[in-house]
Structures are given as structure tokens and as C-alpha cells.
């Protein structure tokens, strides 16, 4: 199955995903600062949980882009089963 | 309940946590590059899941440090119930 | 969007899902017995985590059946976007 | 470390946990019926996610009971480290 790159969809989706990733990068640096400053562990844990939730949102945005784009295109061209199996494997990484 | 800072424990734990956070920061930048390069979405998702797993490990390391340190100290000084309730609230952020 | 029932796929998938659900039902009763018998909490928690993992597997099996069946059929008949949005909403229930 | 049973705490907690487990058992049977009736997969998935959330709540209730009970008692009697390590292992089952 020829791997389709993500350029099937308007760039706006990518920009949104990139902005979120930039914010997550900043949050991770913020947590590093909290650890260096010996901040209270529960406050650090709360920040880690927030980054995790933000990361899940990015994951869902990429999943949505992929399903609307590559998956839909592959199904319409008769290659649905292989790409759906691949989709399930990657969803499994997030659910387990 | 007087908030105890994390300095009850040897710095080695913090160093380990900081190294992991540095690695996660690098991984997040790597994912940004993959999005900019229009890499295949499933590969991007696999990286996001890896960062999520690494983040969970950091969370558990901080949770362990907190429980062995602040929670244990508070229980020994008779302030167990309040800090345990606080512990459950933060664990809930990771489980739900 | 006309809601497609699950009969697009061979019954074997449903039988497998039903067997797993029966086993989960038994496991839940087993946990009730452990609570009644005042068994050690960590042992009870280990069983709860096992049921959770089994439930996730059932969820993935149903998700797979749905994506190979209804989602694929809707995409081929030009109704892909609506059913994909619906798919993302339900995946979100499992990821968050 | 002598395994402490859960009878350190009033039975009310156990009753609440048992009621929730009974409800979960009924929900699982309800999902079986939905599969047998070939109900729409997304509706089945929504129910599975609801049972998962209910299971997490039971897990947290047992975790809370254990931490307030056995963990607190073990820490006060100088056996904190071993039971905290055990606590982290079981929390890890729920987070990963």
C-alpha cells in the first residue's frame, strides 16, 4: 500500500497541530523548571496531567486528519482493509 | 497542611526526572518536524503515543517520590488523611 | 445518515465479542466476591485492572468491526465525513 | 510484610463498592444484549466506555480505602517503603 503523505488536506490543520505542539513543548520546559525549583510534587503532577491531556488532543487531531484524508482515499480506491487494520493498531497505542 | 517541598529526597531522583523531561522536550520538537515535513500520519501518531508513555513514566516517578517523601512524612506526623485525599485527586487526573 | 446495523459482517465476530463479555461478567462477579471476603485491596485492584484491559479489547474489537463494516460502506456511498466525525467522538471516549 | 485485610475500615465503603460492581455487572449484561440484538456499534461502544469509566471509579474507591487503611497503618508501624512500592505497581496498572 503506497504511503500517502498528509498533503491531501489544507495546511490549516497542520498549523493548528503545530501550534499545540509548540505549546506542549513550552509546558514541558515549564515542568522542568518546577522540578529544578523543588516545587510541590502535586503541582508538578497536575502539570504533567495537563500536558498528557493536551497531547491526547493533538493525537486525536492527527487521527481525524488521517481518517478523513488517507483512510477515506484508500477506501474509495479499494484498499480499505489494510489501512483500517493499520488504523486500529495505532488507536490501540492510545487506548491500552 | 504546610506544603512540603521536594527536598526530602536525594537529588538523584530529580536528575533522573529532569533527564526524562529533556528527552520528552526533544521528542515533541521531533514531532513538530514530522508535521512540517508532512510525514505519514500513522508515523506521527506512533511518536505521540511514545511521548505519552514517556510522560506517564515521569508522572509515576514524581508520584513515587511524593508518596515516599511528603506523604510518608505527613502520615507519620498525624496529617495523613488530608494528604491522602490530595494524592487520590491527582491520581484521578491520570486514571480518568 | 441511516444507521446501519452490525449485520454486514459474519456472526463470528459477534460470537467472539459475546464470549469476552460473558467472561468479563464473570470476572466482575469474582471481584464482588473478593470484596465480600475482605480480600487484600491490592489483589482486588489487580483484578479490576484486568477487567479494564479486557473491556478495552472488547471495545477495540467492536471499533474494528464498525470501521471495516459501517464506516467503509458509508465512505463508499459518499457519506464518509459524517460517520468519521462520529467515529472520532467515540474514540475520544476511550482516549481521554 | 503481613498482608492486612480490608477490615480496618467501616463496612460502608465496601457496601458502596459492591453496589457499583453490581451495577457494572448489569451494564455488561446489557451490552451483551445489544450485541445479540445487532445494535449500532457506536451505541455499543458508548456503553463500553461508560462501563470503563464506572470501573475506574471503583478502582479509585478501592485505592482510596487501601491508602487510608493499610498504607497508613504500615507507614505508622515503620513498614512504609514496601507498601508504597506495592502501591505504585498497582497504580501503574491503571495509568499505562
TrEMBL record, chains A, B, C, D:
PANTHER family: COPPER-SENSING TRANSCRIPTIONAL REPRESSOR RICR (PTHR33677:SF3), TRANSCRIPTIONAL REPRESSOR FRMR-RELATED (PTHR33677). One of its GO terms (biological process) is negative regulation of DNA-templated transcription. Keywords: DNA-binding. The lineage of its organism: Bacteria, Bacillati, Bacillota, Bacilli, Bacillales. Signal peptide: none annotated. This is DNA-binding FrmR family transcriptional regulator. InterPro entries: Metal_Tscrpt_repr, Metal_Tscrpt_repr_sf. It comes from the Bacteria. It holds the Pfam family Trns_repr_metal. GO terms for molecular function: DNA binding; metal ion binding.
Amino acid at each position: 500500500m503506497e504511503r500517502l503523505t498528509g498533503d491531501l488536506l489544507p495546511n490549516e490543520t497542520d498549523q493548528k497541530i503545530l501550534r499545540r505542539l509548540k505549546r506542549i513543548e513550552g509546558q514541558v520546559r515549564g515542568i522542568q523548571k518546577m522540578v529544578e525549583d523543588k516545587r510541590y510534587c502535586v503541582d508538578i503532577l497536575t502539570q504533567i496531567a495537563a500536558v498528557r491531556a493536551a497531547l491526547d488532543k493533538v493525537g486525536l487531531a492527527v487521527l481525524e486528519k488521517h481518517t478523513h484524508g488517507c483512510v477515506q482515499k484508500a477506501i474509495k480506491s479499494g484498499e480499505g482493509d489494510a489501512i483500517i487494520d493499520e488504523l486500529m493498531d495505532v488507536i490501540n497505542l492510545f487506548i491500552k
